[in-house]
Design a protein that fits this description.
By secondary structure, the chain is mostly helical. It has helices spanning 3-19, 21-43, 47-65, 69-87, 100-112. The chain is 81% helix and 0% strand. The longest helix has 23 residues, at 21-43.
């Protein structure tokens, strides 16, 4: 991909990620609430505690569903990560003359003739 287009796509993805930063933080907070609710639900032994922690997990799940725009922001961050990796990728040059294994194979073929 051309560096110009990578730059354009990176700028657009960065703007989308920054504009969805609030929902991303809210989604992360909702995930923490769900984790806490499920964790303590599994550890509790009384019925009342299980109902309470199940309620906490359900509130976290409802909060997570309301943060659907955060998925677009997370995808934009993934695009930024992909562009970063592609930007720093080195070109692979396959030089037949300087490859020691190819030279060895060629010389071995000559010796076996």
């Amino acid at each position: 991909m051309n560096k110009f287009w990578m730059t354009v796509i990176g700028i657009i993805a960065g703007i989308i990620a920054l504009s969805n930063l609030g929902p991303i933080i809210s989604l992360a907070f909702s995930g923490v609430i769900i984790y806490i609710g499920v964790h303590y639900y599994l550890r509790s032994s009384s019925t009342g505690a299980k109902i309470w922690w199940g309620f906490v997990a359900a509130v976290g799940a409802i909060s997570a569903v309301s943060n659907v725009p955060a998925i677009i922001g997370v995808l934009a961050i993934a695009v930024l990560w992909y562009i970063y990796k592609k930007w720093n990728e080195k070109e692979v040059s396959t030089s037949v003359k300087n490859d020691p294994f190819t030279n060895f194979e060629r010389e071995w073929q000559k010796l076996n003739k």
